[in-house]
Amino acid sequence: MDKQEDPEFLVNGVAILTTYPGAGSEKVEQLVTNVLEKKIKTVSEVQNMESFSLPNVSTLFVTFKEGNNLEKAQQKVKEQVDQAKRFLPEDAMEPRFPYSRRTKRGKTLDF
Fold it and tell me: Please, what's the largest Cα pairwise distance for the chain?
């Protein structure tokens, strides 16, 4: 098997990271994670979602069903997150997408 230099691969999903300073894990789950999950679940391309609510931070990992247009699926998730922002606590930071489209040699290339 040949080794490919600088391989590029698609990440079949997206991660969403939202910081809520000073909030405990239960508060993060109730006021951030649950709100985002409810909106993201409406995206038909979503196959699976895992979430972690820790003190000060909510992290969601969303994977998409095979055969979907990855860029469109990611955009739909971002649109749902944008809609959910108005329901997040005022003190919560803007949700971020630390990885989304393509990763090359451990570097993230967002679209």
Answer: 53
Residue 61, SS3?
A: strand
Taking the CA atoms of residue 86, residue 87, residue 92 and residue 96 in that order, the dihedral angle to the nearest 10 degrees is -70
Mean pLDDT by 10 residues, the chain (111 residues): 56 92 98 98 96 97 91 94 97 89 46 38
**Pairing state between β 57-64 and 107-109:** unpaired
CB 91 within 8 A of CB 37: no
Burial 82-108 (b: 16+ CB within 10 A, else e): eebeeebeeebeebebebbeeeeeeee
Rounded to two decimals, the pTM is 0.81
